[in-house]
């Protein structure tokens, strides 16, 4: 199962980005999803600015899509 988060609508609103990120990460953890695809939007840099340590602790790794710079994959590892 894969979850998808499209941030196009909130690309310049920091608090909404935080809420959306937290919601999709919480859902991934609750459902033990292995992959979350994030589409950052217009490239304002807001996604990088809102990187939180408590969220980083929940996932295994992040991968940028080499074919499409507008996508980021967050991988989870479950035991």
Account of the protein in words:
The chain contains three helices and four strands. By secondary structure, the protein is of the alpha+beta class. A hairpin with a 7-residue loop joins strand 3 (61-64) and strand 4. It is globular, with a radius of gyration of 12 Å. The chain starts with a strand and ends with a strand.
Search tags:
79 residues, alpha+beta, 3 helices, globular
Kindly report how far apart the N and C termini lie.
16 Å
Shape: globular
> Order of strands in the sheet with the most strands?
1-2-4-3
Helix content: 25-40%
Fraction of residues in β-strands:
15-25%
Stretches where pLDDT falls below 50 for ≥5 residues?
Answer: none
Largest sheet: 4 strands, mixed
What's the total count of β strands? 4
Rg from Cα? 12 Å
Count of DSSP H/I helices: 3
Q: Note the run of SSEs as H and E.
A: EHEHHEE
- The secondary-structure class comes to alpha+beta
Residue-averaged pLDDT: 83
User: Multimeric state of these chains?
Assistant: single chain
